Amino acid sequence: MDSDKINCLEYWEGKGAEKNFTTPFKLDIFSKYVSPEAAVLDVGCGYGRIINELRRTGYADVHGVEPSAGLRARAEELSCSAFVSSLENGVIPFEDNRFDAVLLIAVLTCIPTDGEQSALVDEIRRVLKPGGILYINDFMLNSDQRNLDRYAKYEPKHGCYGVFELEGGGVLRHFSEERIVSLLDSFTTVEFEKVVYTTMNGNTSNGFYYIGRR
Questions:
Q1: Could you give the CA distance from residue 61 to residue 40 in angstroms, rounded to a whole number?
Q2: Alpha carbon distance 161, 53 (integer Å)
Q3: Segment 145-172, tens digit of pLDDT
Q4: Do the Cβ atoms of 187 and 134 come closer than 8 Å?
Q5: Phi and psi (nearest 5°) for 35?
Q6: What are the beta bridge partners of residue 101?
Q7: 16-31 pLDDT, tens per residue?
Q8: How far is CA 84 from CA 6, 125, 148, in A?
Q9: Mean predicted confidence (pLDDT) in 67-92
Q10: Are 85 and 63 in contact (CB under 8 A)?
Q11: HSE-up (13 A, CA, CB side) for residue 125
Q12: 159 torsion bin: left (phi>0), alpha (psi -120 to 50), beta (else)
């Protein structure tokens, strides 16, 4: 897929900023690999729901980065805005090797181009300590007619099967397993499981969770 940027931020400043996110975070799995003393970064943290969950369960050194000002404003409502920084131009505003673990929860789906996905994964590697943990939840390709129709509709426009648009301007992507394996080939896979999620719009979708080590 072309590596040119697709500007999706307008959606996440408007209608997207009003959504309640539903992709689950498997704290029981995460805590097997990451202790409460660890430094944790939630990339694309939205309004801070996972930051709050981690802090409630004893993780004290937790931070988030989020490109949408609308979602960062919602983080103030959850009293976690002090832990959320702006993510601009894909650059994570922390030093090299700062974190023991990074979360990426339903974020790759919001980045439709291969080039931007790879750039973000490179940034995550930069801020992760050697041996650090990357935890991902995200969406995979579906075979139901609704999804097949929209994949077919938007493939000519975006040049990639699995990319589709939402009402209001959002551009999202569902992934093949091959793309996920390729994107994360610089990490050592620790766990990978296919699951079914309920989306932020109330539909069901194939998905996966992944734990890898730098």
A1: 6
A2: 35
A3: 999 999 999 999 999 999 999 887 889 9
A4: yes
A5: -80, 160
A6: 40, 133
A7: 567 778 788 999 999 9
A8: 24, 20, 36
A9: 86
A10: yes
A11: 14
A12: left
Beta-ladder partners of 63: 41
| Interval 28-46: pLDDT, tens | 999 999 999 999 999 999 9
The mean pLDDT of the chain is 90
Residue 2 has pLDDT above 60, yes or no: no
Q: In which residue are the tokens 């805005």 written?
A: 81
Q: Cα(160)–Cα(154) distance, rounded to whole angstroms? A: 8
Q: Is 155 helix (H, G, I), strand (E, B) or coil?
A: helix
Phi, psi (degrees; rounded to nearest 5) at 197? -110, 160
Q: Is the dihedral of CA 99, 175, 202, 12 positive or negative?
A: positive
d(CA 176, CA 158): 16
